[in-house]
Amino acid sequence: MNSKSVAPSENLLDELQSALAHGTVARRVETLRRVTDLFINGAVEFSNEQIALFDDVFQCLILHIETSAKALLANRLAPIDAAPPLTIRTLAFDDVIEVAGPVLSRSERLDDEALIETARNKSQAHLMAISTRRVLSGAVTDVLVLRGNDEVIHSTVNNPGAEFTERGFDRLVHRAEGDDNLATCIGLRPTIPRHLYLKLIAKASAAVRTRLEAANPQRARDVPNAVREATQLARAAPAAVNEETVIAHALVKSLFEDGRLDENQLTAFAEGGKFDETNASIAALANVSVSIVESMMVETRTEGVMILAKVAGISWSSVKAIINMRDQLSSGEPTDLTACKDTYERLRPSTAQQVLRFHRMQQAAVPAA
Fold it and tell me: How do the domains of the chain map onto residue ranges?
């Protein structure tokens, strides 16, 4: 079939004009049905110019039909990849969820910009519809996590096609406090950054840690002594180690064994935001386990970082780089570096060694998971 033969004819356009000017609601709805049928039957073959013509027709009709007819139109156009873009956008921004929902949840015509604008300004029902899309970018989930209620958050986290930014994961970890189901779902996301996984584990209940271990026993076997923070003390708990973490630890081990791991290399890791490499480097230079470093690095306060640095004999400039890295990864309030510098310069190596021994005893007192 020639695509030109199925474009809106002059007779149909005349009928449209007549229906808009003099027709009843029923006649307008019937005209909408005919136009929709015509579009759906030839959508695959239409050129961009022809789709734009349909877009104009639909836009005119949408202004003169009732909600139920718009909802029907949304349901019919939502699964069509070549649906008229302006019409899809108009339907997506409708305040009535029965109209907006089908498009928000299914239409591939909506770009991130439209989804983000909707998520920022519309109801929780609109956010819920967006959360069920086949694919969600990190930019979109950032808004869903920021504005969404508990139902929206759970739907988004349980969507296998959803991506999350580091900022999104950080917010999710905070939202998961006291919500075991959400904490478990977040912990099972394969892309969660390790430092945020550790923070999640630090706040998680024993039930959550058990679920995470049962869901992925390989991770639990890989690292039996990951860290959770409890009353500012390090204790053992199962944690996830992904392939990137293993590679990072192997790199640092190789540098250390070759005599190439020094303060400059540590600073470079920290300035590059490389959490795993920084932890492993501090552990090697301070002669402690990586798990102890992780436990002290994920603590809310900065004392742990300064204690490790003092034991390792690191200068303030490197400590500053490490603290800045922690601030960037946590997305929290920036640390008062002036106060930290004063504290670090007054901290005695002997005192730091004593506190570090205390951390070692605390970790040794808890049997491996």
Answer: 1-108, 243-365
